[in-house]
Amino acid sequence: MPDVTIAVATFRRPKGLERLLTALAKLETGASLRIVVADNDAVRREGAALAARVGADGYRWPIDAFVAEERGIAQARNALVDRALASGFDYIAMLDDDEWPEPMWLTAFLQAADETGADALHGAVVPEFQIPPGRWAKRCYGFIPLRGPTGAIAMIHGTANVLLRHSAFARLFMRLKMAGARFAWADEAKVHAEMPASRTSPRWAVQRAFRVGNSDMRVFLKHTRAVRVKLIESAKIAGALVLSPPLALLAAPLAGWRMLPVCKFARAVGKLSAALGMRYDEYAVTHGR
Q: In total, how many domains does the chain have?
């Protein structure tokens, strides 16, 4: 069986991290596992302390916990990758401290990797709401389960609940696609994601759409050189900015649809802001515990 490193970024959510570690101890797998935890809080260090305490108390898997002092989700994940590469692995799986996997999560990931030959795979994410949102959230990204048929896909756009081969780190995500790497979806590799009350408002849905657009555009600009592709993307942004407001007015009486054009508009504004040099960090605020 392969050697798998499970990389966890945490920031001021010790209860969430404890729930995740408890779930990881219940995995049904024959793989050789190691857990690496990066605490992105150099002040409180609650996550590192908790992981060290759990690891010293007869935990099922070896745990390597450390403090990633440079703040930011990307910085924490980069530190995790550096730490994991120093020890070696066949696969690395990435989870956040507000997620927890089902027992067959890793087995499903590895099976999908064998069947598809993919370099990078994404698994299903099912939100678990502390307070269920209204019907307005039925079509908003981040509020509906992230699911799809298991098999090959064109591209992966997230970095939580993903599995990557060791070879993938020579050419990550956008560079992976440009280099001809293969991607897959593993729907049976399911995790649950905590959705606290602070994440169940229309305001948060709009902020998330803006952040996704902002981060997507920063990646796009970094890795795209072709003028034609940039012009096509500019036309898409302009179309969303022009069409979303009237569509929002038309959808206003329909509870299940009214937020969809609003979020599309916010995402387009996020892309435009990134094109103008603005960087937005949603993770400056911690949701959950």
A: 2
**pLDDT tens per residue across span 108-127:** 999 999 999 999 999 999 99
For residue 61, pLDDT beyond 60: yes
In a domain, 285, yes or no: no
Do 191 and 205 belong together in one domain?
A: no
Could you write out the three-class secondary structure of the chain? CCEEEEEEEECCCHHHHHHHHHHHCCCCCCCEEEEEEEECCCCCCHHHHHHHHHHCCCCCCCEEEEECCCCCHHHHHHHHHHHHHHHCCCEEEEEECCEEECCCHHHHHHHHHHHHCCCEEEEEEEEEECCCCCHHHHHCCCCCCECCCCEEECCCCCCCCEEEEHHHHHCCCHHHHHCCCCEEEEEEEEEEEEECHHHCCHHHHHHHHHHHHHHHHHHHHHHCCCHHHHHHHHHHHHHHHHHHHHHHHHHCCCCCCCHHHHHHHHHHHHHHHHHCCCCCCHHHCCCCC
- The per-residue pLDDT for 138 is 83
> How do residues 229-280 score in pLDDT, each as one tens digit?
999 999 999 999 999 999 999 998 988 888 999 999 999 999 999 999 988 7
Please check whether residue 69 lies inside any domain of the structure.
yes
State the pLDDT at residue 214: 92
The torsion defined by the Cα of 41, 47, 49 and 54, in degrees rounded to 10, comes to -170
pTM confidence score: 0.82
> Per-residue pLDDT averaged across 194-207, rounded?
90
- Domain termination residue (choose one: 180, 197, 214): 197
210 is a domain residue: yes
